[in-house]
Design brief:
Layout: E1 3-5, E2 12-14, E3 16-19, H1 32-44, E4 49-51, H2 59-66, E5 74-79, H3 84-98, E6 103-108, H4 114-119, H5 121-132, E7 136-143, H6 146-153, E8 160-163, H7 177-189, E9 193-196, H8 209-217, E10 224-228, H9 232-242, H10 249-256, E11 262-264, H11 273-277, E12 283-286, E13 289-292, H12 302-306, E14 312-314
Helix pairs in contact: 1-2, 1-9, 3-5, 6-7, 9-10
């Protein structure tokens, strides 16, 4: 496994970051034992970086996976808190549930622009104090938006940016894939540490997984890329790809035959874009939100590509 320094933070991270969203209750809802086991398998294979968030409710999985782990593991988490008090509670909760004395990276979750960042500035000021006190090593934002990256790049208080980027640009808001790549390069010039997300487009790029991972690995400004994993086979597959090793055919087959389903997030607003796009007739609007007929769904992921809210994923 290759490792890189995250911007000017001095934090050394593996190229593959374990995206913890998929093991938890919002997606695969694995048991605590199984979810922690998947994370532990990645750690034992050389991964030293875990990405999570308060919203994901995966702290217990991570804490259990870290039990008895002797080497240092870098943890990045996020919070939607916008007040000083709210951010203090978020940080204290993370430290308590992860049983850590400090957090490596703490991000404002899903920022859109300079305006939204300024709306969270009370929370930022608390994080700066926490950083000075040794409770946090680096701070910044996660974002799906081109403007979010550009704004954060110019804020000297921020150390890290976690942008959405992938082969087809699915899920990028406020611009194209090329716009996001330009924003990422610009942020690197400002010395920001960058690690990517949604390399597989929320699962929509699984049919071209190796091409999709090769694309993000060739972005020179990304120190690491967070990938969601929910099975030991997926861990082994991703470790092979990120380590530059050939993927054994039996492993490729096991990953390709993992049972998957279409997942529609709770924030779906029922716009109907996915229904219009679905040529299988698998999607409809019921009660103001999209629902899927699993007997018709082909798991092609085309619906996710047109969702303006990025709330459809193949998991």
């Amino acid at each position: 496994m290759d490792y890189r320094i995250l911007g000017q933070t001095g934090i050394k991270v593996s190229r593959l970051c374990f995206g913890a969203l998929t093991v938890g209750p919002l997606q695969a809802a694995l048991s605590l034992e199984d979810g922690a086991g998947v994370i532990r398998r990645a750690l034992e294979a050389g991964v030293n970086f875990i990405d999570t968030a308060e919203y994901y409710r995966t702290y217990p999985y991570i804490q259990k996976a870290l039990e008895g782990m002797e080497r240092e593991v870098v943890i990045a988490t996020k919070s939607y808190a916008y007040t000083r008090r709210g951010m203090q509670e978020s940080l204290e909760k993370a430290l308590r549930e992860l049983k850590r004395d400090y957090l490596d990276i703490f991000l404002l979750h899903e920022q859109e622009s300079y305006r939204t960042i300024r709306g969270h500035w009370d929370a930022v000021e608390y994080l700066l104090e926490a950083k000075k006190a040794g409770l946090v090593r680096a701070i910044g934002i996660s974002t799906h938006c081109v403007e979010g990256v550009r704004a954060a790049a110019r804020i000297p208080e921020f150390d890290v940016i976690h942008p959405l980027i992938n082969l087809t640009g699915v899920g990028i808001q406020g611009g194209t894939r090329e716009d996001m790549l330009e924003a990422i390069a610009e942020a690197a010039v400002f010395g920001k540490g960058l690690y990517g997300m949604k390399a597989l487009g929320g699962g929509n790029l699984i049919p071209s997984v190796e091409e999709a991972l090769a694309f993000v690995l060739n972005i020179p400004h990304l120190a690491s890329v967070a990938v969601g994993m929910r099975t030991p086979a997926e861990v082994d597959f991703n470790v092979s790809v990120f380590s530059g090793q050939p993927v054994p055919e039996d492993l490729r087959h096991r990953v390709g035959t993992v049972k998957r389903r279409l997942h529609i997030e709770s924030w779906c607003r029922g716009c109907g874009c996915c229904v219009e796009r679905c040529t299988a007739g698998a999607l409809s609007l019921v009660g103001g939100r999209a629902v899927v007929d699993t007997s018709r769904c082909r798991l092609c992921g085309y619906c996710g590509a047109v969702c303006p809210e990025f709330c459809i994923r193949v998991i």
